[in-house]
Amino acid sequence: MSSLPLDANIIGLDPVRLPSDSRMPIFPAGDIAVVHHTETKATQKVANGQTVLLTRSRLRVLGIDGIAITSGYSADLDAGSITFNDITDYAQPIRIENRIEDMALVSDAQINGSLIPT
Q1: Which structural domain range is residue 79 located in?
Q2: Judging by beta carbons within 10 Å of its beta carbon (0-12, 13-18, 19+), is residue 82 exposed, middle or buried?
Q3: Residues 36-94: pLDDT tens digits?
Q4: How many Cα atoms are found within 13 Å in the side-chain-facing hemisphere of 50?
Q5: In sequence order, what are the beta bridge partners of 53?
Q6: What pTM does this model have?
Q7: d(C-alpha 85, C-alpha 78), whole Å
Q8: Which has the higher per-residue pLDDT, 5 or 69?
Q9: Domain for residue 30, yes or no?
Q10: In a domain? residue 56
Q11: How many domains, the chain?
């Protein structure tokens, strides 16, 4: 690994105060961290009465134009399914996003990037 000397005029602070290895923790202990994964089901055309099964409970329906669709369907969040009731104004085909996430307090953050949640 090589590094160039930093000019204080360019970075706006005295580089002597920076760590020599250029690594700095970005998640201090006591901060809250949210880890998530969003999965998008392939675009598809839907019809009234159709049920789409997914594996997760946080669901969002988007039209082909990228605008969220907030009506015309009912969601069973425990089962991870959506049943379409009125697709009249939908920009088809649609995409369905589902997400899983968790939030935790960071109790320790190491310089190597390891986070210890509580």
Answers
A1: 37-117
A2: buried
A3: 998 888 889 999 999 998 878 788 899 999 999 999 999 987 788 899 999 998 999 99
A4: 9
A5: 81
A6: 0.61
A7: 19
A8: 69
A9: no
A10: yes
A11: 1
